[in-house]
Write a structure and sequence with these properties.
This protein is of the alpha/beta class and 330 residues long. It is 37% helix and 20% strand. The strands form three sheets. Strands 4-3-5-6-7-13 form a six-stranded parallel sheet, with helices on both faces. A six-stranded mixed sheet has the order 9-8-10-11-12-14, sandwiched between helices. Strands 1-2 form a two-stranded antiparallel sheet. Helix 1 crosses helix 3, helix 4 runs parallel beside helix 12 and helix 7 packs parallel to helix 9.
């Protein structure tokens, strides 16, 4: 099954890989079959344990074989075309994250397999997903959101295999990644629209501390303080009824729909009586109510750039661009 030719210039660990791949392609090895043990390969071919482990770890990382404690290695997949595996850990799925994912996938080589997971802002789920997959992937792309103690979990992974996505906490800034500067982005966007914003009597930021970036809150407060604008922070809209002269900054789509309904129920006019600025542009926000003003990064560009970073093995920290899109709601 395994053929080692000492006259070839090909490293011996690669010859082990090729031998197992060829055995799978020829049908000699099928899914679920056990491959020779480390000791058997070592004894038969006079190879070091490190050489054999290098080959088996490559096959394991690509998802072709799996190890069973106390039993050995077994064929997990017959798809030997997979050259690399990437674990992609999102906080949640929504329209703009789907744009990011599609751009990322479409800009990777077809031989790269991507498995996507979601932690839904649950620290235990975050920890379990990463800890249960240590050593099973070539790269780990992680959205840490604002979860606490993620550094202790991520530190268990080889640092050159980790890419941080979307939010870049201070204690993770030594990792590569592509991120938004939420404090600067909201401050600059509100400043750009300051003439329209100053027509309102009071600003409200709907901010859920478990999900929204702290930088967004800091940038919002900085703008209001520098421009002497009255403001308040709302965790939700359950008890709030919109009134004339108010402007709402809404990061999530659920609350965006709620405030639009509340404005209609109160017989108020959007933009004339009450203003809205949303986050993360979508086709729906371009159309609904004549258009909703948004503060938005380019998620497709983020996905494309991330794919290029991994393909080229770049170790960089890149701030993704952000824009204010002015529409009827302001």
């Amino acid at each position: 099954m395994i053929t080692i030719n000492t006259d070839l210039a090909i490293p011996k660990y690669k010859q082990i890989i090729f031998s197992i791949e060829n055995a799978i392609l020829s049908g000699d090895l099928k899914k679920g079959d056990q491959i020779p043990s480390i000791n058997a390969i070592k004894s038969t071919y006079k190879l070091s344990r490190d050489t054999i482990l290098m080959a088996l770890n490559d096959l394991k990382n690509r998802g072709i074989i799996q190890s069973v404690i106390g039993k050995g290695y077994y064929v997990k997949s017959e798809n030997v075309a997979i050259k690399q595996k990437i674990l992609l850990l999102f906080d949640e799925l929504n329209t703009f994250k789907e744009d990011l994912y599609n751009a990322f996938i479409s800009n990777l080589d077809a031989s790269i397999k991507v498995d996507i997971y979601f932690h839904h802002f649950n620290p235990n789920m975050f920890r379990n997903i990463l800890e249960n997959n240590i050593g099973d992937y070539h790269y780990y792309v992680v959205m840490p959101a604002n979860l606490k103690d993620v550094k202790q979990v991520i530190e268990k992974l080889p640092s050159d295999t980790v890419y941080i996505l979307d939010q870049m906490p201070k204690n993770l800034q030594h990792y590569s990644g592509i991120f938004q500067n939420f404090k600067k982005d909201i401050f600059n966007s509100l400043s750009r629209a300051s003439n329209a914003i100053k027509k309102y009597k009071k600003l409200y930021l709907v901010f859920t501390k478990e999900k929204q970036p702290l930088g967004m809150l800091e940038g919002f407060k900085l703008f209001c303080d520098q421009n002497n604008m009255p403001y308040d922070i709302l965790e939700n809209l359950d008890e709030k009824q919109p009134e004339h002269g108010e402007l709402y900054i809404i990061p999530d789509d659920d609350n965006l729909l709620r405030i639009i309904k509340k404005i209609k129920d109160a017989k108020l006019k959007l933009a004339k009586d009450v203003g809205i600025i949303s986050y993360n542009d979508t086709l729906l926000k371009e159309i609904v109510e004549g258009g909703i003003t948004t503060i938005s990064t380019d998620f497709s560009a983020m996905g494309m750039r991330l794919a290029r970073m991994i393909s080229n093995r770049e170790q960089n920290r890149i701030e993704n661009t952000n824009n204010l899109i002015l529409r009827h709601s302001l």
